[in-house]
Amino acid sequence: MYEKSYPNKRFKHTIQFLQKHTSSSESILDLGIVNPFSTIMQEHDYSVENTKGEDIDLDTTTIENSDTDIVTAFEIFEHLLSPFTVLKAIKSDKLVASVPLKLWFSSAYRSKTDMLDRHYHEFEDWQFDWLLEKAGWKIIDREKWTNPTKKIGIRPILRWFTPRYYIVYAERV
């Protein structure tokens, strides 16, 4: 069903990790606007609502007013100036979040045409763990995976061995 709709293995890993730690009977607030992965969660019988496109660095009202069971944040925290503020605003007791990891051989992502589509943070795993713990979350499980490409060159070869994505399941302390 969904194999062909995945642009890469990131979505496959993400849905498997989400299913490992949550039930489709639990409601989800997905940080960020409706996106292809929101649809994938719905295809797996999750009830998903998204934030509305507001700048959640400045306006956490939707997050604060949500009564969902789980908050998901897939590749969103690296775009925020202050992910700590957002993490503190979450009322749900469960969080599933992923971030791209900082790669020593590749500079942070920066779109030349879209001012919002840039990475302010690219985390090492310990930095993301520390951020979550400081914001009042206890990490229950974590995984990393690579994101190889079929291109030729030194960086594409390194992507076969170097983890690019990091996902955690955390609960409010």
TrEMBL record:
It comes from the Bacteria. SUPFAM superfamilies: S-adenosyl-L-methionine-dependent methyltransferases. This is Methyltransferase. It comes from Flaviramulus basaltis.
